[in-house]
Amino acid sequence: MGDTRLPERPLVSASGLAADLAARDAAGNPVRVCIIGAGEMGTDLVTAIRQMRGVEIASIVDRSLTRAKPAMEIAGYGDDASKICETAPEISRTFEAGCIPIVQDAHQALSHDLVDVVVDATGVPEAGAELGMASLEAGKHLVMMNVEADVTVGAMMQDIAARKGLVYTVGAGDEPSSVMEMYDWVTALGYPVVAAGKGKNNAFRIDAVPDDYREEAERRNMNPRMLVEFVDGSKTMVEMSCIANATGLMPDKPGMHGPDCGPEDLHKVLCPVEDGGILNSRGCVDFSVGKGVAPGVFVIADMRHHRIRERMNDLHLGPGPYYTFFRPYHLTSLEVPLSAARAVLYGTSDMKPLPRPVAEVCALAKKDLKAGDQLDFIGETCYRSWAMRADEARSLGALPAGLLDKGRVLNDISKGSLMTRHDVAVRKDTPLYNLRCQQDAWLGHEAVA
Predict the structure, then answer these.
(1) Is residue 416 helix, strand or coil?
(2) Is residue 8 part of a domain?
(3) What is the arithmetic mean of pLDDT over 429-434?
């Protein structure tokens, strides 16, 4: 294990979030976070929060009761820093004794009076819907690291949170919220956004399956299924759709373009066809597989006013009219505690869906599927995610990828074909399905399945 010693506390400015958190810390009233999920993302959260002042862990939900202690060990906690708890009074006693409660029952943990804000670090849409709704019903702010759930039912959860006076937010640090930060900055200055997106991490192999990546996943301390979700493009489709639904930017075509261009050429390629680019319309989400873009994010702005272009050229940013604003990194889970803090202290969201989704994450078959086959989970063997305009997806009867787990194939589906309601029966006995039906009705749409 590496060095887990905490560095000396940095000097805190007189204003801003750091100062406000330091004041909460001094008052003995830190922001208290319930972390659901102790896997890779949850471990990052535990470690990140331990570095902070004014934020602390109220509980860790670990369904198997096997991963929370290793997560705490990696973060630098001792063996006696946590205790498995089964009841609310036991959670209270453990916390008051200076230990972190480890809880198997998520509902028991998230509803506890100690908790100010819940972070969903499960990455499973079904869990996101069930536990996200339970958090809101318990009166807790909700930070969603589960982007798969957000693109399936995020609009409904955001509306419910707002009506309850609570914050629903996608967590800071991942590509969607990192793009959102730049998007807000560019649009606040008044410039139209032509395209926004990210560099795709990992190789792009659309037929990847976990068995092919098991060795690499183990070497990188990852779940093979999660690695494949990145490799086959599913995660990119989910993340770009999340950005679309928070900004109104849309996929320019199903699956987007995904050009092979570096940071210096993004604004030359992801611009309208009439200006030498590949976009059929302005205001798009897309991604690049070009060298040097990942793990960064970008926003391309139209800044065509002659005075603005003159100044931008003076600043060595080129002649325009299109300019790429590029950040060569994103910090994934490490920034998420900031979203939790801002939700509690300021009642603000770093990123939330618009009332009406403009994009849908659908799915294409990874292989030939036969009637009677049972579908597996995203990142496995049956399908990969596919981003589409929401209106086009509805017209084709395309199913949200988030609903496909354990669905049943009704008619043969050829490899590469869109998964539709005509060919797949999804499970209808889950909180995720019920919440999606509620969202469809709220939006005035026919139930998706």
Answers:
(1) coil
(2) no
(3) 96
